[in-house]
Write a structure and sequence with these properties.
mainly alpha
Length: 324
């Protein structure tokens, strides 16, 4: 198997693995914020051990370390909101919201890169908004869960764009190490606010008590997903174009919904949910295809213009020779 094919197979495996995260989160009897703290804590400690066998963290400049640690805030927001989405709704609803990540990338990347957006981007975006409107306008019981998932997807898009740059600058495990550290610090800073402004008014307290099974699942989340899958995903960005990564990642809700049905026998949603979801996923799937088509079309047009100019130059030269 060639290295290129192996990379594509690895990407599909990572996407398949990631689609199980919302279902695993629902199996763990720990609230979302406490779960996020434990996941990032375990991941950071395990990476601390693994880093002794790889590049030393002290080899990087303060600026590079600051950027990687700072991007951990995006990890905190992305994972935290996805956990909350799954906890207050269902795994399927969470995945539909998170599936909009590639769509947000399509809008945010040109904006951050100071490139002009294209007309078809507006059309795709309007189609996605229509899908979301239909879902919320129907008798849908998980509106907040979907909304939180979509907001989380925005931070996921920002994280993906930033990781694409970091992938070409640093080792994937080094990036993961600092981002887990940044996510852990962000969660730790957020905990007092979470306690005094949410738990105390609700008459609750921190819930870190979990069964052995829960801790095994959390350790699995930390090692398999936070370290292995996450690091591989970053390294993949070095060799696979963003178009392909976005297209394959769109299979996440397909895999995840199937997993949720198998594990939880999740109830069938109303018709409005499926129509809206269909429009939303249509936007997510068609954008990278349209984007690639427009790039190729523009490239072909430029080549035709160059060829036309070249032919005109030859004709003029022949006419000059004939005249002489």
């Amino acid at each position: 198997m060639s290295s290129n094919v192996r990379t594509y197979v690895m990407l599909h495996m990572i996407v398949l693995l990631s689609s199980f995260i919302p279902s695993i989160v629902l199996l763990i009897d720990v609230p979302a914020i406490e779960l996020l703290f434990l996941r990032t804590l375990f991941a950071f400690v395990m990476l601390l051990v693994l880093m002794n066998k790889r590049a030393s963290p002290s080899l990087f400049t303060r600026k590079a370390i600051f950027h990687m640690l700072g991007s951990g805030i995006l990890v905190f927001l992305y994972w935290g909101l996805s956990f909350i989405s799954a906890k207050i709704s269902t795994a399927s609803v969470c995945l539909v919201g998170m599936a909009t990540t590639s769509l947000w990338i399509s809008f945010l990347d040109p904006l951050l890169s100071k490139r002009k957006s294209r007309p078809f981007q507006v059309l795709v975006g309007m189609n996605a908004i229509l899908g979301i409107y239909i879902i919320f306008n129907s008798d849908f019981d998980y509106g907040w869960g979907l909304a939180v998932g979509i907001i989380g997807a925005i931070f996921g898009a920002l994280l993906t764009i930033y990781n694409a740059k970091l992938a070409h600058q640093h080792d994937a495990y080094v990036v993961t190490f600092y981002q887990m550290g940044g996510a852990l610090i962000s969660t730790a800073v957020f905990l007092p606010f979470y306690y005094y402004f949410y738990l105390v008014p609700e008459g609750k307290s921190f819930q870190f008590d979990a069964s052995p099974t829960d801790y095994i699942l959390i350790l699995g989340l930390a090692f398999v997903f936070s370290i292995y899958a996450y690091s591989i995903f970053i390294s993949i960005m070095k060799s696979i174009p963003p178009f392909t990564v976005a297209l394959v990642s769109n299979l996440n809700p397909v895999y995840g919904t199937a997993a949720a049905i198998l594990l939880f026998q999740e109830n069938v949603m109303n018709t409005g949910f499926y129509i809206g979801t269909g429009l939303l996923l249509l936007s997510v799937f068609t954008y990278p295809i349209l984007s690639d088509y427009m790039k190729n079309y523009k490239k072909n047009q430029i080549e035709k213009i160059k060829e036309h100019k070249k032919n005109n130059t030859k004709i003029i030269q022949k006419e000059k020779i004939t005249t002489e």
